[in-house]
């Protein structure tokens, strides 16, 4: 059970649930500790992304948006329903050419709109992602994440990042539980 922490030290309102109010300075100190823990986690992740993407922090943002556009159709069941209707089974890897027909395509304009980045910047970064082999652009401009990107970053995300995220969340939970002790 999570402790109830007053967000404002001068608040006179009693927390819900009938628990006595946490000592304001202690609650503030715990929240600062949790914020610092989360900031350290995020900075570590940003540094890794920066290095993993040739020191260009926009590349992981754009690759992520393209992947979300593409794979969002799979997650929402659009591709599965379509594959079921046609009698085709979905290949294991969503970047296969057979599945690419089922993925939701995107283009530089839609990615620029999603990220708020200038279209020219997005176009230049997409060229770099294509050079790295992480994005495939069809003749009509549709963009798709490649098998290589899924293999490289899927493995990394499932091993290193997920374990670190869970460890950080557990640490934050322990800090919050100490205060409510």
Structure write-up:
The N terminus is likely disordered. About 15% of the residues are buried. The longest helix is centred in the last third of the chain and has 34 residues. The chain is mostly helical. It has one domain: Arc Repressor Mutant, subunit A (Orthogonal Bundle), CATH 1.10.10.10. Strands 1-2 form a two-stranded antiparallel sheet. The termini are close together.
Short key terms for the protein model shown above:
single chain, mainly alpha, Arc Repressor Mutant, subunit A, two-stranded antiparallel sheet, 7 helices, 64% helix, elongated, disordered N terminus
Largest sheet strand order: 1-2
Alpha-beta classification: mainly alpha
**What is the name of the CATH class?**
Mainly Alpha
Question: How many alpha or pi helices?
Answer: 7
CATH homologous superfamily caption: Winged helix-like DNA-binding domain superfamily/Winged helix DNA-binding domain
Q: Number of folding domains?
A: 1
Gross morphology is elongated
Beta strands, count = 2
Distance between the termini: 10 Å
Mean residue pLDDT? 75
What would you say about this model in short?
This protein is mainly α and 181 residues long.
List the helices and strands and how they pair.
Layout: H1 24-52, H2 58-75, H3 78-86, H4 97-100, H5 108-115, H6 119-131, E1 135-137, E2 143-145, H7 147-180
Antiparallel strand pairs: 1-2
Helix pairs in contact: 1-7, 2-6, 5-6
């Amino acid at each position: 059970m999570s402790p109830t922490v007053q967000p404002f030290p001068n608040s006179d309102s009693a927390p819900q649930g009938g628990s006595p109010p946490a000592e304001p300075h202690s609650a503030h100190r715990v929240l600062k500790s949790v914020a610092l823990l989360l900031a350290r986690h995020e900075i570590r992740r940003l540094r890794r992304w920066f290095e993993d993407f040739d020191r260009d922090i926009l590349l992981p943002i754009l690759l992520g948006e393209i992947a979300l556009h593409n794979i969002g159709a799979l997650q929402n069941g659009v591709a599965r329903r379509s594959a079921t209707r046609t009698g085709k089974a979905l290949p294991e890897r969503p970047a296969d050419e057979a599945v690419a027909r089922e993925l939701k395509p995107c283009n530089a304009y839609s990615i620029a709109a999603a990220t708020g980045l200038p279209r020219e910047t997005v176009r230049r970064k997409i060229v770099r992602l294509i050079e790295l082999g992480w994005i495939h652009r069809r003749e009509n401009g549709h963009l798709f994440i490649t098998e290589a990107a899924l293999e490289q970053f899927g493995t990394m995300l499932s091993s290193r990042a997920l374990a670190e995220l869970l460890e950080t969340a557990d640490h934050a939970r322990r800090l919050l539980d100490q205060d409510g002790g």
